[in-house]
Amino acid sequence: MKFASEFRDPAAAKALLAEIARTCDRLGATRAKPVHIMEICGGHTHSIFRYGLDKLIHEGVEFIHGPGCPVCVLPMSRVDECVQIAEKPQVIFCTFGDAMRVPGHRKSLMQAKADGADIRMVYSPLDALELARRNPAREVVFFGLGFETTTPSTALAIQQAAREGLGNFSVFCNHITVPEPIKALLDDPEMVLDGFIGPGHVSMVIGIHPYDFIAADYGKPIVVAGFEPTDLLQSVLMVLTQIEQGRAVVENQYARVVPEHGNAVSLAAIADVYERRPTFEWRGLGEIDASGLRIRPRYAAFDAEEKFAIGYGAASRNVPEPEGCACGAVMTGRIKPTACPQFGKGCTPDMPLGALMVSSEGACAAYWQYGGARAVAAE
CATH classification of 4-68+180-244 is 3.40.50.1580, yes or no? Predict the structure, then answer.
């Protein structure tokens, strides 16, 4: 890939849209409903709305927004535990910026910072490591958050801390995995899904074979996709073509970035530092077995849950969503964001009720940024 414009070419997009329309027309002769395609990744959701693909694509395709936003699926109890750690004396709590305004039961990290907690936005766990080196008398805690995309960088930071003997550095681990929630959705009898657009950046780390069960066990096609408009349109066409031909396989549209077997160095770091949790709570999906990662005992000195006796290592609790908040239904694709009674009213980017409105990959944020605000204003 030399230029982004190669993947934003209007002529190529029009040709793909025309072929999608022809395929949908052929499928329409045997189907009473649109083809429901779930884009798992929140980055794909934002690309769909940024480029207006939801309006350009044939009515025979309906995009279903999936749970691929790690900030969004984090339950309120874990946000509360972040605040609890951050408010401890002598703690410097480090986090990525999109987690700052996610509301907990009591407050968000942004509100805790306003109340005096030393909370700092960082771009990488390496920034947190540097803070630990410069502040040996302080406890520096990094909020390890994300799918397999960000998991390796946190693992490498822990390995480096171990090599340097940085005993004042630890990670509050909330890393989660993509395949398990997909299985939970497919096992839900209320979900009607015909195919999937697979996450590009996650697959860059894990490869394409962790999704084999989707095709083999459930008979659903999945295409790992890039993030430009022609990437997404080509991936939709690939899903539709599989459905038309009666096939269900894992295909890789994003081969320029995603290797078949993933990134060996990243996978080795993950295997060294983490192990599976027996269960992990997801916003909107509840407890999902083996869907979260925790730090292995050999690195317990760098595990904030162990160091501060908090989280799943202690007496963690489920915290219900605020009354009227439909994050769970939106997160699992049961409703669109605009169907939530709080959208644009009780929940806005300035005063969020749920995480989906503030995360850079949240579906509600995408709807708001690319037209939802105008729709609410017009009511």
Answer: no
